[in-house]
Every structure is written in structure tokens, then in C-alpha cells.
Amino acid sequence: MGSTLISNGTVVNADSAIRADVLVRDGRIVALGIGSDWTADHVIDATGKLVIPGGIDAHTHLEYPIDGFTTRTADDFHTGTVAAAHGGTTTILDFVKKEPGRSLYDTYLRRRDAAARRSVVDFGLHAIVPPRDQQPDVLDDLRRLADEGAASWKFFMAYPGTQMVDDGELLAGFELARELGVLPMVHAENGHMVARETQRLIDSGRTAEHFHATAHGHDAEAEAVHRAIVLAESVGAPLYVVHVSSAAAAEEISRARADGRRVWAETCPQYLQVAYEDYAGLGERAAAYLCSPPIRERSNQEGLWKALVTGALATVATDHAGFCMHQPDDLPPQKLRSPGYFPKVPNGVPGIEDRLMVLWEGGVASGRIDPCRFVDLVSTRPAKLFGLFPRKGIVAVGADADLVVWDPRADHVITTAGTHMRTDYNLYDGMRVTGKPVHVLSRGDHLVDASGSFDGAAGRGAFAERGTPHLF
Ligand SMILES: NC(=O)NCCC(=O)O
Ligand SMILES: [Zn+2]
Ligand SMILES: [Zn+2]
């Protein structure tokens, strides 16, 4: 492993930006200093570059089972984490969905092993809480899972009949989360409203791909966000709302935070940078853009940016759930399996590799946020909320040497062929960006260098131990 010196860069943390050299030894940051005369086995010249903590993507779906475990997302823990590393992300937090015929606890242990065999960057897992009729003793499993490092649980308020839990289940789960110091997360869409609207669209023959966005209305999201906040508050639990897509939902969060509620929320690059107008006229190719909640009208985006600036939105994660347009060799047809019929299109979009570049472009290069806020959104805040801080999420002595040397003046065009995700399209294909990662280190290992070459074996990624979340 040895030592690495990153010299002459500007170290950017969530609260400061200073010129400093960074000395790394045996996987950790061991010194920060100005004009140092340190020597090391490897030297990376970061003149004119920023040195930031590795990105933490708190929301990914690698080899994620769908359709009753008959198929899955295109990227597995290997391809997905290689792509993540190329994009400057050195930790991912993925999900465990209970397998039929197996308890949530057993599923979790198997998935943790699978991820450990294949990942090239560090990972953690959130448990998805199944409806009680799928596992009546699920609360007992959740207790055991908290001891095994699953310090965050996701509840679906959407997808009735498969994943949706009712308000009683939310209350019981939130209460247990509060007791155990676990952070509950919600996919906030009112499943009944979406199902009803979907049926109305089917009955009137409006099933083309873009009607997915009509089915998943702004109100259905805002209602569920509001309800989740009220339910969490009623049992004294904190709350994390994943993939906020609608300005109306962000408003609910903003209001609640102004009232002192302990609620944090995430949005995703696709909601900030891509719009309904980009796919509404594409016919069946609009399937590429389908995810839930949906990518909404361009007029909605400014409200999300405002919430990012004010802090109502605390993190930017990808919700990377990539499906191919053309059928992959090893899987059944994916995005185009039901042309002209949106209810059967697998939900989810890729982005694990694009996140930092897209947020930098729309946020920092556009003058909306500064580099410190960027670091907070993509690394520090997720580290704090999910119990990884200060081991991760900060460039500081003692922290893991998960580091990105970032070129803030790069002139780069994102392309499908130039990225490493398995999906055969990229939502940002052709987008010109002015910042990109040029070196990526994970626990001191130099995974990606300035030429873009990659050096990291499957299985080098480790399960990230989680401590107490910093909920402030
Ligand atoms: N977001 C999406 O459409 N698919 C992934 C699963 C989820 O987060 O709901
Ligand atoms: Zn979700
Ligand atoms: Zn998701």
C-alpha cells in the first residue's frame, strides 16, 4: 500500500478550502500541511486542482432484483462500483430487498457477502422494510439488522401489493428506528393515488411511455412527504426522504425544517438537469427516462435548486437503477420490453458515474453553489447522516484516504461510450462539463489516474462500518 503525497492542491471540505499537501499512509490521511518537504512512494501533483473527499452515493441499486426476483438491474456490484470510482465516488450505500422464502435478515447477510466479493469501493447497505404480510416478524429482524450495520431502513409508501407499507407499519417501524438510533428513509409517493391515476390512463388508452409522469403526480409525492414527516414526528423519529423530484415536495420539507422537524432529504441529478420536455416526444425511447418519482417539467427544477441552496435538500445521490434499452446478453429485455405501455417499463435510470460532474456543472459552474457546498452535498452530509463520518466524508488527519483530485477547469463531454456503466445509454450523453475527477483514491489505493486507467480488483471494497449518525 505504501504512501502517497498529493501536493500543491486546494483541499476542499464542507466548511473550508485551503491550499495544502495531503500525505497518505496505509490507507489513511496522516498529515495535512503547507509547503511540506514530505517524501512518499508516489506523488500526485495537484497544482491547479482541488482535493476533495471521495463521493458517497447514498442511494444505488446494483444487481437490484425486480419482478419477484426474476430479473435485475444491469450493473452488478463490480461493474457498478468500477463506474462509481471513475466518477469520483468511493463509497456507495445500496439496498437489501427481502428475497421470497428467505427472511430479511438472511437476505441481508447474503447480499453483504455478494457485495463484498464484487465491489471495488467501500459499501454499506440499507434494509428495505417489507410489508408485514411478507414477513410478520420483520421488526425482530430489524433489531438484529441494526446490530449488523444496517443503520438505515427504507420504507416504500408506493407500489401497493408489492412493497408499499401502510401508516401503521410506518409508525411501528419509525418508532423502532428511533429506539435503536437508526435513520428511517421513505420513498414518498402515495401509492394509491399513483395506482388510481395509472388505471385511469390505461382505461383511456393513454399508455405511451411519457404518461408515466402523469401517473406519478406532484401531489402524490407532496402528500406522502407531508404524511411521512407527520408520522415520524408523532413518534419522535428523524426522517430521510429519498429521491425528492418535485418542488412541491421540497416545499413540504422546507416548511417542516423551518418548524424544527428533524427531516433531511435527497434529490438526484436527473431531477435537476433532465426534464420531461427532453423525453415527452421520444415515443417508446422515452422508456430510457422512466423512473419513480418521474423526471418532471423543466419549470419544476428551479424549486429544487432553491431547496439545495437553502439546505432543505441535504444530499445529492443517484438512485442508480440502470436498465438497458437493448437486451443484455445475460438478462431478459429491459427498458423496451413493453413498447407503448408505460406500466410495464422497469423503473430506474443510470447515473452512478455522472453524479459529481453533473452537479458540479449545474451547481458550481453555474454559480448556484460553491465548492464547499458541493462537497457537503455529495460526500460530507451523506457521511454524517449515515454514520460514516468522520472516517469518511472529510479530508482530515485520521480519515480514510478516500480522495478525489478534481480538475475544476476540465473541458469534458459526457458520452455513453466514455462511461463505464453497463447501460447502453446515458441521460447526459453530449453534455459538456467543466469539472471532472482526474485521480481517485480509495483507502489510499490509486484506483483511477489522470489517463483514466483503472487499477482495483473486485472484492477490494469493504463493508463500511457505521457509527452514530450526526443528525443536526
Ligand atoms: N427509482 C426508481 O425508479 N427505481 C429504483 C427503486 C426506487 O428507488 O424506488
Ligand atoms: Zn424509491
Ligand atoms: Zn431507489
TrEMBL record:
PTM-bearing positions, type N6-carboxylysine: K154
Gene assigned in the entry: hyuA
Modified how: Carbamylation allows a single lysine to coordinate two divalent metal cations.
Record-annotated Amidohydrolase-related domain positions: 50-444
SUPFAM superfamilies: Composite domain of metallo-dependent hydrolases, Metallo-dependent hydrolases
GO CC annotation terms, alphabetical: cytosol
GO molecular function terms noted in the UniProt entry: hydrolase activity, acting on carbon-nitrogen (but not peptide) bonds, in cyclic amides; metal ion binding
Listed transmembrane segments: none
Gene3D superfamilies hit by this protein: Metal-dependent hydrolases, Urease, subunit C, domain 1
Protein name (database record): D-hydantoinase
Alphabetic keyword roster: Hydrolase, Metal-binding
Record-stated family: Belongs to the metallo-dependent hydrolases superfamily. Hydantoinase/dihydropyrimidinase family.
Cofactor(s) this protein cannot do without: Zn(2+)
Organism per entry: Dactylosporangium sucinum
